[in-house]
Amino acid sequence: VVVTGSDDRLWKMWALPDGNIIMTGEGHTDWLSGCCFHPSGTQLVTSSGDATVRIWDLSKRGCILTLEGHAQAVWDCSWHSCGDFVASASMDSTSKIWDVNSERCRYTLRGHKDSVNSIEFLPFSNTVLTSSADKTLSLWDART
């Protein structure tokens, strides 16, 4: 199974190898830039040009949480391996660590001088890697 996001504001889940569409999600008001499965495979996080991050429950076939706080488009998103936190990277030059259980931003990571284009939690750690249009990579401790 793979998930794709598109300019049509939808994400689609595809079965491999036959390529049949299993599920489609709609709710973002602009293009999708990132999709990432929850470690358990039961949820999905998406990022969008509408400056939001959305959590989708795959069994309910719908959005269960919209995270708002970025000032511009969100380029990428990533789950922490424990499944309780999401990281997002934005055109507004910041990244955010979201606590899914409390439904709020835990930390805003500031330091890049241009758009933050990608973000990833390192496996089984609290370290986050970001890359930016300012031509730098940064490693962050997501706890501080």
TrEMBL record:
BP terms from Gene Ontology: axoneme assembly
A GO term from the CC aspect: axonemal central apparatus
WD repeats: from-to residues: 1-24, 25-66, 67-108, 109-144
InterPro entries, per the entry: WD-F-box_domain-protein, WD40/YVTN_repeat-like_dom_sf, WD40_PAC1, WD40_repeat_CS, WD40_repeat_dom_sf, WD40_rpt
Keywords: Repeat, WD repeat
SMART domains attached to this UniProt entry: WD40 (SM00320)
Name of one Pfam family that matches: WD40
Full protein name: SPG16 protein
Organism name: Asarcornis scutulata
Lineage: Eukaryota, Metazoa, Chordata, Craniata, Vertebrata
